[in-house]
């Protein structure tokens, strides 16, 4: 199976309070995007396309290996992945989509996703259980309902797809559609999505506290 990796790295550093795109913020002196590319490569996905902000192409080219392909992302994550997918050649039979914002995802997780695709899954996502009590609130912030958490899962990346399933789903999706992950795109197109075990180390860096935790993790 020939798999190509996509890293969505075109987001801003706003919620992190950073003065640059989040993917360029350093963790142990290396930009987050470099960690994410390493995860894919160490897990066996050598061919990687990274979607970056249009005005930061040079900055990304400076920090990433020469054989990583860069494309200009869009104003939403969905648009960025769409742009990167257009750069994935027809020679690939699988695509793994990963977030630059998940720097410490272990390569084992990439292997699990690849194995599920090899075993015949058309789409697969890593998931973790929900451990907190989870509620629905009304417009005033009052608790309206408690959800049965035993059927809920938190979804991580990398998410794996048969290339044709992902390409067809994006072709079918309206151009301005905005979904929070790629499994939602293929599910909307009617493709069943399988799950594999996720990993707490693959947590997303969103706010400064997440980055502080990641720094602690790499210093241990
Ligand atoms: O903002 P959030 O952390 O949820 O974004 C998830 C990933 O999607 C990040 O790695 C971010 O760089 C990427 N992204 C993107 N293009 C956008 C917005 C987010 O590639 N326009």
From TrEMBL:
EC number per UniProt: 2.7.7.60
Superkingdom of origin organism: Bacteria
Name of a matching Pfam family: IspD
Alphabetized UniProt keyword annotations: Isoprene biosynthesis, Nucleotidyltransferase, Transferase
Catalytic activity: 2-C-methyl-D-erythritol 4-phosphate + CTP + H(+) = 4-CDP-2-C-methyl-D-erythritol + diphosphate
Gene3D superfamilies associated with the record: Spore Coat Polysaccharide Biosynthesis Protein SpsA, Chain A
Phylogenetic classification of the source organism: Bacteria, Bacillati, Actinomycetota, Actinomycetes, Geodermatophilales
Keyword Isomerase in annotation: no
Site-annotated residues for Transition state stabilizer: 15, 22
Name of protein: 2-C-methyl-D-erythritol 4-phosphate cytidylyltransferase
């Amino acid at each position: 199976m020939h798999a190509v990796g996509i890293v969505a790295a075109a987001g801003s550093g706003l919620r992190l309070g950073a003065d640059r795109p989040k993917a360029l913020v350093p963790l142990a002196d290396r930009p987050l995007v470099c960690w994410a590319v390493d995860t894919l490569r160490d897990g066996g996905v050598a061919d990687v396309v990274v979607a970056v902000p249009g005005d930061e192409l040079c900055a990304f080219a400076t920090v990433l290996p020469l054989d990583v392909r860069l494309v200009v992302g869009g104003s939403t994550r969905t648009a960025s992945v769409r742009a990167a997918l257009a750069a994935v050649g027809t020679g690939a039979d699988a695509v793994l989509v990963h977030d630059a914002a998940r720097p410490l995802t272990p390569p084992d997780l990439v292997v699990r996703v690849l194995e599920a695709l090899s075993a015949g899954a058309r789409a697969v996502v890593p998931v973790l259980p929900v451990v907190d009590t989870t509620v629905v609130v009304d417009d005033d912030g009052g608790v309206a309902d408690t959800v049965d958490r035993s059927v809920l899962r938190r979804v991580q990346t990398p998410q794996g797809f048969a290339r044709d399933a992902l390409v067809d789903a994006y072709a079918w999706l309206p151009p301005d559609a905005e979904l929070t992950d790629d499994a939602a795109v293929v599910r909307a197109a009617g493709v069943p999505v399988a799950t594999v075990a996720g990993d707490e180390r693959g947590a997303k860096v969103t706010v400064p506290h997440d980055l502080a935790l990641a720094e602690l993790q790499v210093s241990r």
